[in-house]
Every structure is written in C-alpha cells, then in structure tokens.
Amino acid sequence: MSTRINQTKAPRTSIRNATEEDYEAISDVVVDAFVHDPVYNYFGSLKEFMPKDKNTKEKENLRKWSKFLLSLCVLSGGRVVVMVEHSVEGEGEDEDGEGRNEGERKERERIVGFAEWLPPNKRPALWHVRTMFKAGIVGMVRAWGMSGLLRCGFEWLDGTERTMLKAFRKRELGNPDATWYLFQIAVIQECQGKGYMSKLIREGFDNAPGATFTLDATTASSRDKYAHVGFEVVGVVPLGRGKSNSKGLEAKGESAVGVDAYSMIKLPNGGSR
C-alpha cells in the first residue's frame, strides 16, 4: 500500500511591462497592500482603519488615488511593470490518479505586485496643470478634499523635495530630479515575504545600470526592505504633527505625534558619499 503525497509547487513568476488591461489589477494591489498605510491614512484624513473584508468609501478613495498616481506616471513617460504569478488550471491528477492530458491544462496568470518608475527629469508637479487634470486631480480633490490635496501635494511633496535636495547638496550629487524615482511599488499581502518586492526593484536597477535611484518610504518596515536592496536613508520627513497619531489616523493632544516618511537613495554600485 502506498500513500500519495500532494505537493504544492511554488508558482512560476515573471515581470513584464504593464498594459492598460492591467490597470484595474494594479489598483486592486494598492488597495490590498496600502489599506493600513499611515501616510495614506493621513492623506485621506481617516479617523479609523479601513476594514480589510468589505468595500467602503475610503477604500474607493484609495483606489482613485492609485489610479491618479498611475496616470501621472504614464503621462510623465514613466515605466510600469507588473509581477505575475503563473499557474496551470487542471494541473495534477484526476480521481483515478492518472495524469491529466496536456489539452486539459490552461495557464492562468495573476498580478500580485507592480512598480512605477519615473525616469530622470520627469517628475510631475502641481503646476503641470494639463497633466494633473488629465491624470484626474479633480476626482482626487472630490475624494479627499482640499485637506488631502494640501497634505499630499504640499506637505508631502514639498517636504520630500526639500529633504532630498538638502541631502544631494551636502553630498555634492547634483540634482535629485536627475535620478530614477520609484514612484510607487506594492505587493499584495498574501505574497509579501516571498522576495517579490526585491525582484521588482532589481528589475528597475537592471533597466538603468549605473544610474542613481531615489524613493520615499512611507513606513519603517518598507524603509528596511529598501535598505536590504541597497538604499540608504538621507532624511526623515515629518507629516501630520498635531493632526494624526503614528498610524496616520486623526488625533489631538499628546497622541498627535504624526507619521514619518523616509527619503532614500541608492548610488551606482552601492557607493556612498
């Protein structure tokens, strides 16, 4: 008598350029991965965490934000790539233990992560009015209000730009806009810890060998993951002091400590100055 052991194979993965047909799936990844992100909570003026198991107005606003950023990246000439898991429907054995025919198998792919890169000197700015309108800024103002626009468009962008510029001047690195900027990256929670984020980032490195890369991390956890692939913190950007707690939720008094974002850089060949 023999015992048959079913083993689950790790799915095959690949990274490819995103198409318009992938955009909705990219938004799904953002909502899943950033549902409790403190900086995004602060942008949305949330009073409590969004539930993971049901749709809410706040989740829909987060989805609008993801589509706005994606549109900005594409309109600015950026690169968008997706991490895909491949599986085969019908793979395995039937009830009699016989292998299934090749014709009964069908490959299926699932987008589980993505990365959006802005090339050197392609950063979008609020005064690029035409681009902002085409990307959907009106919808974002309706979703998050003027407070959300001020928080992400001025407090966040101005803060990160000043921090990065100060760091570049101190190290005599030139203009931070002349770098590849990781605009947004995410992997669904189910697949985190599999090294997918590192693969997405290294694909970006391979696309521009010898380049300098920059990003802004929204949590200490993501900061540490970026450090693992060669980025280093060059400044901390405080957000929401006196307005939110450390989770990005509305707060007052002693608990309104705000949240921190981390400006990071990776120099060519892991160098430092």
TrEMBL record:
Domain of life: Eukaryota
InterPro entries per record: Acyl_CoA_acyltransferase, GNAT_dom, Trichothecene_AcTrans
Stretches assigned to the N-acetyltransferase domain: 101-269
Region entry Disordered, spans: 87-106
Any GO MF annotation of the entry: acyltransferase activity, transferring groups other than amino-acyl groups
The name this protein goes by in its record: N-acetyltransferase domain-containing protein
Lineage: Eukaryota, Fungi, Dikarya, Basidiomycota, Agaricomycotina
